[in-house]
Task: structure prediction
Amino acid sequence: MKKILLLAIGFLMTMTASAQFEQGKYYCNGSLTGINLSYSGAEKLSLGVEAKGGYLVADNWMALVMAGYSHDEDVDDKFAVGVGGRYYIIQNGLYMGLNARLVHGGSGYNDIMPGLELGYAFFLGKSVTIEPSVYYDQSIKNHSDYSKVGLRIGVGVYL
Result:
């Protein structure tokens, strides 16, 4: 009996999650990046915040816009704006994203950073998620010093 009940709950959770990735839904997200869980050659401490907005243009395909700020211990603070896309690989929330950011910092630092992201949307309710992800941002300006691998934790809302 316990196995049947757990199977039914799992099935209902999957059905609820899949309804969120349908065409025409809107998405907003706020996240923390870095938190000393990122690595690049020029930074010791990195802490950032990021906001994203999106629209599901087709089932499982989302277009994104983003803006962010990061404070780095050894490098001037940076501001970033960008665009991207996300594909939900399986209906329970696993996703892969591609993006590109224009990053601007003090002392004339400007960079274009294409990136990859792999994450999971854990649904807390019908439309609110916790979204941990691993990301890689490639620096066009200086790969060894400014490219970054890190962990991002966000809260998303699907409308």
Summary: The domain at 1-158 is CATH 2.40.160.20 (Porin).
